[in-house]
Design goal:
two-stranded antiparallel sheet, binds magnesium ion, 9-stranded mixed sheet, binds adenosine-5'-diphosphate, alpha/beta
């Protein structure tokens, strides 16, 4: 049976993963600050909106006005898609992360976190096919201080289960300290997500060069090499012609 795939919207990347992300997958994008994670997710959102696939963007790090301004750098007029109902932004002030809700999520048998019903409502309202959460690190950091590693693990597992049950293809981002040997800040998301893409940079000669690597993509014979990419005035472009640039 052939798998339905959804384009990443990132030029060159789809060639590395048999045409796109399998529909319904949850993909983790990890990288240090400035690596291009937010631009990647905006590109995914806009490209799919253009094709008539509506998306929800939950921004936990930046305010919505900043996101719209960032997008303008690449000639992506988010307002146009928002008006047409193909893109909806949500931010923490409208998605309460009340401690009580989160405690019940972990200690109770049933998820009772306010963020989940809010996401579900929005997905149903606009018939969303895609979802972005930028970043999952901020969500994890907002958990109560008394949470043990086990509590965080359980919270994230249940959170991802809920996201997957929505039937959307999703991307979550994670802030990764430079030279981390893990693939996410919480060290759990990489095991739970269906796919992992790492954005990094290397010094090539004297110049810092951006590199992208697909570290994991379930149900996909993937190209596992690192590839150079650039952030151009059209967004992220992965250079697949030169082949891999080593690990
Ligand atoms: N118009 C642009 N053209 C090229 N590069 C850009 C442009 N705008 C931002 N960048 C690059 O993208 C980086 C920010 O990308 P972003 O996706 O916000 O990073 P992250 O979310 O990983 O922290 C900036 O540090 C800059 O290097
Ligand atoms: Mg960002």
């Amino acid at each position: 049976m052939s798998i339905e795939r959804i384009s990443s919207g990132v030029s060159g990347l789809d060639d590395l993963i048999l045409g796109g992300f399998p529909e319904g997958f949850c993909i983790l994008i990890s990288g240090s600050p400035g690596a291009g994670k937010t631009i990647f997710t905006l590109q995914f959102l806009v490209d799919n909106a253009k094709k008539g696939k509506a998306g929800i963007f939950i921004t936990l790090d930046q305010n919505i006005t900043d996101m719209r301004n960032q997008a303008k750098q690449f000639d992506w007029d988010l307002g146009e898609y928002e008006k047409a109902g193909f893109i909806k932004f949500m931010k923490p002030s409208s998605v309460s992360l009340g401690n009580q809700g989160i405690i019940e999520t972990v200690k109770g048998s049933k998820i009772h976190n306010e963020i989940i019903p809010a996401i579900k409502d929005s997905v149903n309202t606009i018939g969303a096919k895609i979802l972005v959460i930028d970043s999952i690190s901020t969500l994890t950091l907002s958990l109560p201080k008394g949470f043990s590693e086990g509590d965080v693990r359980l919270f994230l597992k249940r959170f991802f289960d809920e996201i997957k049950s929505l039937g959307v293809t999703s991307i979550v981002t994670s802030d990764l300290p430079k030279d981390s040997k893990w693939m996410s800040r919480d060290r759990i998301s990489e095991f739970v997500c269906d796919g992992v893409i790492i954005l990094d940079d290397v010094i090539f000669g004297e110049d810092p060069m951006r590199i992208l690597r697909v570290a994991k993509m379930r149900e996909t014979k993937q190209d596992r090499k690192s590839h150079f990419f650039e952030i151009t005035d059209k967004g992220i472009v992965v250079d697949v012609d030169k082949g891999g640039c080593g690990e």
